[in-house]
Amino acid sequence: MTSLLTLISRSLRRAILPGLIFLITFLIFVTTRHLQLISSRCPNRRPKLLSRTRNGDAGGDHAGGSRAAPPDFYLFVLGSGGHTKEMLMMMDDGFCDVANVHRRYLVSSGDAVSRHQVADYEHSLALLCAQHGSDSSRGRDKDKNTHTEGDADAEGDSLGSSGSHDVVTVSRARRIHQPLWSTPLTALASILDILPALLTPPPNYRRGGRSPRFPSIVFSNGPGTGFAVALAVHLIKMFYVVPEGCMKFVYIESWARISTLSLTGRLLYHMGLADVFVTQHQEVADRYGLFNAGEMVFNSRREDPPR
Length: 307
What we know:
This is UDP-N-acetylglucosamine transferase subunit ALG14. This protein is an alpha/beta fold. The chain is 46% helix and 12% strand.
């Protein structure tokens, strides 16, 4: 009997030991990668990624310019309760160097209002860029000697274009008044929906071309889904699914947060998941040691064009 128990004990140790070694190795890897990614971020430094929207001569031409930006791919996390409207107001800066930019909008299931607001914004942007292209074409006609024929053709291909966009629907990370105990389950379901949105190339992507396969920047301004997106980005970088240089997570705290961070903001702040973290009020910035970008929600530089 004793020998049988000894044999069983040895068999269990042989079966459990590899599992324990794997678990310990996995935990060490995850912890090391997490700390490595966190240490590479400086969310409280003055953000260069937002310089264009706050400075007419930094990072691109204004509506009066004529050069389109290089191909790029941005992802915007939208949310109900005013977050979508606020995000679109920050985007509405009057620039038209978006001919080669693909914009992907992430909306939560059941949020029909955000879809309508995106459609209105894209329609307004298309009208603005079409007007910009028309004005620039007339300007070139008056000054034909300043460009070669090749330059004019290349430039004309991009003028008047507002780029491309698509809208992706994901499960809501947390419903309003949802009990906290059930939030991890809905957040996990949301992350499973978010991963394809992050990893699927834009429709105009061509392998081997200049167009980026993954979003270069992910923008969020407060909805709960924003935390799920930031966590998903962190996880796929942790396991080397995407390069560390892409999917920079930019978090702009909601304009409504005057003195404290929102729940999403606090989670991102304490977990260090944002590459850039800015507020829109000095009181919040001083309280958490963050950079105050000013009231970006009032960033619009133009009136809405007639429909």
